[in-house]
Design a protein that fits this description.
The complex is a heterodimer of chains A (about 550) and B (about 200). With about 550 residues, chain A is of the alpha/beta class. Chain A folds into three domains: about 5-170, Thiamin diphosphate (ThDP)-binding fold, Pyr/PP domains (Rossmann fold, 3-Layer(aba) Sandwich), CATH 3.40.50; about 190-345, Rossmann fold (3-Layer(aba) Sandwich), CATH 3.40.50.1220; about 365-540, Rossmann fold, CATH 3.40.50. Chain A has 23 helices and 20 strands. A six-stranded parallel sheet of chain A has the order 3-2-4-5-7-6. In chain A, strands 11-10-9-12-13-14 form a six-stranded parallel sheet, with helices on both faces. Chain A has a six-stranded parallel sheet with strand order 16-15-17-18-20-19, sandwiched between helices. In chain A, strand 2 (about 20-25), helix 2 and strand 3 (about 45-50) form a beta-alpha-beta unit. The longest helix of chain A is centred in the middle third of the chain and has 24 residues, at about 340-365. The relative contact order of chain A is 0.11. Chain B is α+β, with helices and mostly antiparallel strands and about 200 residues long. Chain B has two domains: about 15-90, 2-Layer Sandwich (Alpha-Beta Plaits), CATH 3.30.70; about 100-170, Alpha-Beta Plaits (2-Layer Sandwich). Chain B has helices spanning about 30-40, 70-80, 110, 115-125, 145-155, 180-190; strands at about 15-25, 45-55, 60-70, 85-90, 95-110, 130-135, 135-145, 160-165, 170-175. In chain B, the strands form two sheets. In chain B, strands 5, 6, 7, 8 and 9 form a five-stranded antiparallel sheet that branches. In chain B, strands 2-3-1-4 form a four-stranded antiparallel sheet, covered by helices on one side. In chain B, a hairpin with a 3-residue loop joins strand 6 (about 130-135) and strand 7 (about 135-145). Chain B is elongated, with a radius of gyration of 21 Å.
Chain lengths: ~550, ~200
Amino acid sequence: MKNIQGSEALIKCLVEEGVDTIFGYPGGAIMPIYDSLYSYMDNLNHILSRHEQGAIHAAQGYSRASGKVGVCFATSGPGATNLITGLADAQIDSTPLVCITGQVPSQLLGTDAFQESDVIGISMPVTKWNYQITNSEEIQSVIAKAFYIAKSGRPGPVLIDITKDAQFSEVKFNYKKCEKIRSYHPYPIIDNKKINEAVKLINYSKKPLILVGQGVLLSNAEEDLLKFSEKTGIPVASTLLGLSAISSDHKNYVGYLGMHGNYGPNIKTNEADLIIAIGMRFDDRVTGDTTKYAINAKIIHIEIDPSEINKIIKTDIAINADAKEALIHLTSLVDEMNFNEWISEFRICDDIEYEKVIKKEIKGGNSKLSMAEVIHKLSELTEGKSIIVTDVGQHQMVASRYYKFKKPNSNITSGGLGTMGFALPASMGAKIGNENREVIAIIGDGGIQMTIQELATISQYKIGVKILILNNNFLGMVRQWQELFFDNRYSFTEMVNPDFNKISEGYGIKNKKLEKKENLNNVLEEFINFDGPYLLNVIVEKEGNVFPMVPSGESVSNIRLE
Amino acid sequence: MKKKGLYQLKDTEKNIKEYTLSVLTEDKAGLLNHITIIFNRRKMNIDSLNVSTTEVKGVSRFTIVVNSSKEKIIKVVNHINKLIDVLAAFLYEEDEIYYQEIALYKLSTKMFLKGDLVEKIIIRKYGAKILKIEEDHIIIQKTGTKVGTQKLYDELKKFGEILEFARSGRVALSKKKRKTINFIKKLEKTKSNKLNI
């Protein structure tokens, strides 16, 4: 077999790993790879973003909509540093990525060469693994390892930095997938003793509550969760990233947890006598004051990452395992039960929340639209079957509350890191990763301006995403906090925005402005039914607040309805 | 009502103790940085650090001494264990290990020759030895605990100025009857590399 250039070997590795799409941005130090890519355009689709942050968020969206590893390319120096926010986001939200960055030739490392940056050093705390290749002989084994590490166990981002000389020098191609690394144990062996202890607790519980996180979606355990919940009759509440793991109209589903979650699951956390947490990590936005959290409950924590166990909340029974595997074991052993009375208590809470919050929110203001009524209508018109990609802030919380998810893997948002600017690029990746489904990006007027350049990418590749701006000319969530906790001192939260419709026109993207309540239904229908990208600029009430709310640092029992 | 929150447990004088971490890793560049940023992120100071190869080819050992609360150090160990190239991280309290440090003392030859310093203090009382005698300076070497090497330092200081002093990081072995190579072979055999459903 004849030798090939390192850069071509890299491209062939991606083909071997089943990669179909790469998001990236070329530059000096990654040029040999882009040159090799030019010969493989039949095998690999490359999307040219307008900023490297756009490329990596797109790869995240792609991964979360398709379940596959997201791949992105960037050059050395600023290209690589522009990936950092996306790496940190993917790390905290467990998204499998393989990011390839070019690097200056190895003999120039450490010389402050043009566009040299220590990307390995910089990305260390925000990657699951990173590695610098300085020799073309290493390319195949390192890329194989990168894919294995990114997707196995608790997934995460991997960054591989390749010096230009390694890209140029020749090597024999003989690819072998990685199946094992002796220092890495992604799938803990399940401890049957713990399973039996958990089964006992479950069978004797009076008021059990299941909390599902993204771990259920990542291990494709949605069906297994249903079987477990249906056999035991235990109610299920979801974290932000767990949304869509169970259909919102399931009889055992009792709502969304956390700071702006539903009244029932928050307040009932402190009444439950058993919490079964599956693939979630007790984020402070879920727990509030941890000393006053789940005060009457024993805790069973099913979690694949051992470092999450006993990190925030002391666990009574820790099952260190993949969610699917643990659920299969548990379901086969637990008793058939029903907790209809306990679930009906949640329904009473739902009624209270409806009367005090939801009813007026989905009706909206007298003249202006409310965020909630827009999302409520969108959810109705799409029957809860779209993929919703959200940014960070009020619109994100409203979308999580009022969009009624019916299908798994439908909620793509920046949860842990809270990255404004995430939604627009992530939505393009999501659409490419799952072309058959409707993808709707819901974004605030602040967030969209952080990555607005990606409208050009959407336009160039005609990516059929729907972009819904909930525009209140404010950094709404910060404003809400200023109103509630900083004595109405609106320090730098009001925005004078550009004309988003004219901008959209400039990028050649169909658009409309929606201001009048009476047009909501018709305009949303047109927006959904349009074939191709569409930007809808919805002017909503300026100073709306998201309720309920657990004030920062307070107990979940102190959830405020108004 | 029982308290479940773990992160609120603040370090106080009372719950802080000296811990020794022994971390077996693949011999890979950059791993030192990977490990130290885990401490840095929590604003924890490392008291002593030693890295060396082990009796097993390709395997390194990091020995790290820190003062911390138990809650905090357990989370650090869990985090270190998560690093891809870490084979295993072990946490020890003082009574679970054998440990030593080495200290070198540089004195002027003139000062050294005063009285019966050598005989009485260095050799008999402290079990130190003379490593090198030069015309203008001598080097003394002592192995022991930090307390022991510090005591000798303080004693020597009474006789005059110490020109230079250096102390190594701690090296430690656990009291358990474990053979590194067997431990690694066992790791290699576990079937935790893929999902077994």
